[in-house]
Amino acid sequence: MKITQFLSNLVCNKSSKMDWINLNSIEQLTEIDENSHLKTQIIFKHSTRCSISIFAKRILRDEYTDEIKKNADVYYLDLIAFREVSNKVANHYSVVHESPQILVINSGNCTYHASHADVSFRNIVIS
C-alpha cells in the first residue's frame, strides 16, 4: 500500500468496516431529528487536523458492530470542511462545540455527548 493511500484511509471518511453517512449540510439536521424518533442517530464531529480526533475515529471504527449498524445511523462531520454545519449542530442540540465529539440523538434531542478521550460507542446506550 502506498503511503498516500494509507494516510488517506487514516484521515478520510472511508472504512471497509463502517458505514458513515456524510453530514455536510444544515438541512440534514431535520432528517436526523425525524429519523431519531425511529432509530438512534449518532454524529461524530471530526477534525482532520487533530491527532486526538484521528485516534478517536480509529476507536469508533474498531468498536463498530453489526448491532450498532442495525440500531443506529452514524454520521460523519468533517468540521474543518463544514464549519457552518458544525456550528449549527452545536447550536441546534445545545452542546458546546468540541473536537472530536460524539452526539447521540433520540426523539429529536441530544441525549448524550462526549469529547476527546471519551468518544466511544461503549458509552452509548442505543435504543
General description of the model:
- The protein has about 130 residues and is an alpha/beta fold.
- It has one domain (about 25-125): Glutaredoxin (3-Layer(aba) Sandwich), CATH 3.40.30.10.
- The chain contains 5 helices and 5 strands; from the N terminus they run αβαβααβαββ.
- It has helices at about 5-10, 30-35, 50-65, 65-70, 85-90; strands spanning about 20, 40-45, 70-80, 100-105, 110-115.
- Strands 1-3-2-4-5 form a 5-stranded mixed β-sheet, with helices on both faces.
- The longest helix has 13 residues, at about 50-65.
- The chain is globular.
- The relative contact order is 0.21.
- Residues about 1-15 have low confidence and may be disordered.
Descriptive keywords:
127 residues; alpha/beta; Glutaredoxin; 5 strands; globular; disordered N terminus
What is the ordering of alpha helices and beta strands?
Answer: HEHEHHEHEE
Radius of gyration in whole Å, from Cα? 14 Å
The fraction of residues in strands falls at: 15-25%
Q: Architecture, CATH level 2?
A: 3-Layer(aba) Sandwich
Please estimate the helix content.
25-40%
The biggest sheet amounts to: 5 strands, mixed
CATH-assigned fold name: Glutaredoxin
Principal-axis shape equals: globular
Structural class: alpha/beta
Could you list the spans in which at least 5 consecutive residues all have pLDDT below 50? Answer: 1-16
Mean pLDDT: 87
The N- to C-terminal Cα distance equals 39 Å
Strand arrangement in the largest pleated sheet: 1-3-2-4-5
Tell me the domain tally: 1
Total beta strand runs: 5
